[in-house]
Amino acid sequence: MCACVYDAVGKVLAVLPEGEPVTGISSLDNSVYILRGRKESKQVEVYELYSPCLEKTVTIEGLGHGQDIVVCGNSRCIYVSDSDMCIRKVHVENTRNGYQWPVDGEPGALSLTGRQTLLVVFSSLKNIQEYSYDGQRMVTIRMGHDITPQHMIGMSEDEFLLCGNDRNENPHVELGSSALKENTIRFSGKKGSGEGKLSVPNLCFRRQ
């Protein structure tokens, strides 16, 4: 499976080499970090942003099956959600000394917020958990029985964008503030292609 790097209007900047399935992608400075989920070593490949040139590989010791990756410019750390019910953290310059913290279920998609916290989606538990960069759980956002979250991003200091699906596998996109309890705007359209329709959305992004 290969990965492509696009700019904000959809122009292809680089096509990265094929390899094991890509389960996550993130960027920091002028580097792109690719997570290959089914490898026992060298799971993270680091490429130059605008070319397919491999800069280095990173081995995350003990990683079971990496689900997603984010790289934080504030902490200068790589965070990976592991199917072995933990979040793994390594520094971008010192990847040998890693750290991990346990979580309640199997973690999925990751994202960073503007208040320097980490959002972790638990689709099977139907919730999103917010952690400090050192693994302290701060907030649990429960979605109820009818919504299965797939991804969530922080839009501003107190605003979030969520995507997922409902109990009938129809797409669900939700924009709200105060942990999705106030000023909520929802899209619950029909599944498919064309105007007013979506397939089940798995990721959402904010254009910088």
Structure description:
It is a single chain. With 208 residues, the chain is mainly beta. The chain folds into 2 domains: 4-142, TolB, C-terminal domain (Neuraminidase); 146-208. It is built from no helices and 20 strands. It has strands at residues 4-6, 12-15, 22-28, 31-36, 44-48, 54-58, 66-72, 77-82, 86-91, 99-102, 110-112, 118-122, 127-131, 137-142, 147-156, 159-166, 171-177, 182-187, 190-191, 197-198. The strands form 6 sheets. The chain has a 4-stranded antiparallel beta sheet with strand order 3-4-5-6, with no helix packed on it. It is globular, with a radius of gyration of 17 Å. The two termini are 27 Å apart. The model is unreliable at 178-183 (pLDDT under 50).
Features:
208 residues, mainly beta, 4-stranded antiparallel β-sheet
What's the layout of helices and strands?
Blueprint: E1 4-6, E2 12-15, E3 22-28, E4 31-36, E5 44-48, E6 54-58, E7 66-72, E8 77-82, E9 86-91, E10 99-102, E11 110-112, E12 118-122, E13 127-131, E14 137-142, E15 147-156, E16 159-166, E17 171-177, E18 182-187, E19 190-191, E20 197-198
Parallel strand pairs: 19-20
Antiparallel strand pairs: 1-2, 3-4, 4-5, 5-6, 7-8, 8-9, 9-10, 11-12, 12-13, 13-14, 15-16, 16-17, 17-18
Give, in order, the helices and strands. EEEEEEEEEEEEEEEEEEEE
Structural classification = mainly beta
Fraction of residues in H or I helices: under 10%
Which strand order do you get reading across the main beta sheet?
3-4-5-6
Structural domain tally: 2
Silhouette? globular
Q: What are the low-pLDDT stretches, counting only 5+ consecutive residues below 50?
A: 178-183
